[in-house]
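Bug: token stream looks shifted between consecutive jobs. Job 1:
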Amino acid sequence: MVIKTEALVFLVLMFAYSSVPLMVKGAVYNVGEFTGWTTIGHYDYAKWASNQTFQVGDTIRFVYNPTHHNVMEVSSSDYESCNAQAPVVTYITGNDSIPITKEGHHYFICGVPGHCLVGQKVDIQVSSSSTKGGAMTPTASPNSTSPSNTTSSASKFSSKDLSILVPTLVVSAFGFAY
């Protein structure tokens, strides 16, 4: 039996894909949109966050220059007072994707002295998802800002879909049925 290289590569990729859990369930929000996480321009992070509908399963992404900024998740009182002395978690890569795993408020500040005080802080208020088991893509009103990336196309396929697709591809690629 002669196996076509393209068909074999495709099948290997499909098998690998079907072995990976589908973890992308929600929207990806870039904090500060195109401005990113910065003190330049005094971006209004509170206004940005109030125009979003964050839900469990979404991801918030902080993009910034790591030589000048960081991201610290802090308590409510530390958020209000801009206290960076006892963060829950500190992120320093400059491209931090943080999955939202629970409802409630999630407080983030920049821990560089003075940055939080000039507004480099955001309160992410998370509600529960209104749909169960599926991807949730927020809808934007005409005056709001939509997330820069929405649900990954990978989340649109289930393992059930793959169990139907792969045998069909095997039949067409190898010319036989089982």
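Job 2, same session, no restart:
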Amino acid sequence: MPIFDLKTDDQIKEFMQDERKNHNKPYVELSRRIPKYSPKQICHRWNYKLNPRLTDGPFTQEEKEFIYKWGKNNKNFFGEIKWSHCQRAMEKKFNKFRAVNRILGMWLTHFKRRERRVKTYNFPGTSVIDFSNVYNHPHVKQPDTSTTTIVSNVPLLRFRPPRLPTLIPNFQPEMNLPKMMPLF
């Protein structure tokens, strides 16, 4: 059963087209008029389904390439991307108003596909990896063999060598240690 019905959709469209500019917080005002829905639900319904400016349908190859380049070139210091800015730039360039979630979904699909390609690529001549230098450490347990074989269909980047022990001992305050004698 859908959350929104046609009557509610009509109310939202009518309000957003006629009275939106009269209110500072139009979604809050709408949620007061239609108490069944929260402002966030109404906002999402308008921005991703009901807005008449929205363009549905598949992305063209030019739009996809634009999104890939935008995502690559417009990351901030923390690696975040402002997809609303990409939405505005796409509207100027292609005269199509796409939902931000659709743009983000296109980027994530591309990004995950690219990541999958890297993980499953097998480098030639690397079916055996030698970890003998790791196992020479006195605190690392010696396995049955000093080499590990990687089967060709197992992603290389998911394999992790054993962890080396830390050099900082665990502090246990309950232990009664003998007092040290002065050196002088």
